[in-house]
Amino acid sequence: MLEIRPCCENCDKDLPFDALDAMICSFECTFCAGCSESILKGMCPNCGGELVRRPIRPASKLIQYPTQAHRHVKPVDIAAHQIKLSQFKTVPSAQR
């Protein structure tokens, strides 16, 4: 079950359970769409995987399956990520 993390790891923007702009990788690193598109270019800075839209947890399931409360904020080293992007721009995410 997804943790549904509460914020963007890069900019700390709130991303509640019903956020339409929450993006995750397969390890659930969580970023807002703004950071994902403008800074990360769709690639997770932690694992190199692709960032996709996080599904919305129905409000009726929040009591039984609460979202994570801990805010994990780790701003991206933009220069280092630019290097990764240039190294992997032609490599499919499954092969990174």
How far apart the termini lie comes to 25 Å
Low-pLDDT runs: none
Helix content: 10-25%
What's the overall geometry? elongated
The residue-averaged pLDDT reads 96
Largest sheet features: 3 strands, antiparallel
- Number of continuous helical runs: 2
Strand fraction equals 5-15%
Q: Mind telling me the C-alpha Rg?
A: 14 Å
- Give the strand order, joined by hyphens, for the main sheet: 2-1-3
The SSE string, one letter per element, is: EEHEH
- Work out the number of β strands: 3
Commentary on this structure:
The chain is of the alpha+beta class and 96 residues long. It has one domain. Helices cover 18% and strands 8% of the residues. It is built from 2 helices and 3 strands; from the N terminus they run E-E-H-E-H. It has helices at 33-38, 78-88; strands at residues 22-24, 30-32, 52-53. Strands 2-1-3 form a 3-stranded antiparallel beta sheet. A hairpin with a 5-residue loop joins strand 1 (22-24) and strand 2. The longest helix is centred in the last third of the chain and has 11 residues, at 78-88. The protein starts with 21 loop residues before the first strand and ends in an 8-residue tail after the last helix. The mean pLDDT is 96.
